[in-house]
Amino acid sequence: MQNLYNKLIELSESGQYPFHMPGHKRNIESTPLKGAFRCDITEIDDFDNLHDEEGIILKAEERANRLYGAYRTYFCVNGSTAGVLAAVSAAVKKGGTILAARGSHKSFYHAAFLRELDIKYLPDKSDDELKIPGTYTQEDVENFLDEKVEAVFITSPTYEGRCSDIKGIAHACHKRGIPLIVDSAHGAHFGFGKKI
Fold first, then answer.
1. What gap in Å lies between CA 134 and CA 127, rounded to an integer?
2. What strands, in cross-sheet order, belong to the sheet with 149-155?
3. 144: phi > 0 → left, psi -120 to 50 → alpha, else beta; which?
4. Cα separation of 21 and 52, whole Å?
5. Do strands 118-121 and 180-183 pair parallel, antiparallel, or not at all (unpaired)?
6. What confidence tens digit (pLDDT) does each residue in 57-94 have?
7. Each residue of 9-20: pLDDT tens digit?
8. 151-185 residue pLDDT tens
9. Would you say 101 and 122 are in contact if contact means Cβ atoms under 8 Å apart?
């Protein structure tokens, strides 16, 4: 089976006119970013469905599972914002409590607002010398877990590239039977490096 990128390039170079959404019709002149829309399509025959994947998108997600060591990968639209909104909404009941660091992306606060969540904050661990947010350990999280906390939200790596102890924090969360949500939007390249 072809991979998703090659199949999209093949379609863009086919000369086949798109009588479907989106409205820019893969016109490479429709933006100052030449060619940005050449692979932008909707769910059409032979290209699977992002919300009910069973073909080429499913195969791409399975490759991502292997790359990141994930049990299951779901591609989303709108950058990681949609993923954060979905994860927080799925993990914490409306009006519930979530434990998080203050340096979280605004999509986290958007999700907390929409779900009317009580945010319990981890202590500020900013690096005073570098003036950037710090990282968290398993012990940091364990010290702030109580019976009200339904999930933990951590950004790792931070926007500055610093990583928390995700394995330890996951252990603390799973021991309590609550989900850990990790915003690792700035760590997408980690699957390509050597484990240290």
1. 6
2. 118-121, 97-100, 149-155, 180-183
3. alpha
4. 18
5. unpaired
6. 999 999 999 988 889 998 888 788 999 999 999 999 99
7. 888 888 887 777
8. 999 999 998 999 999 999 999 999 999 999 999 98
9. yes
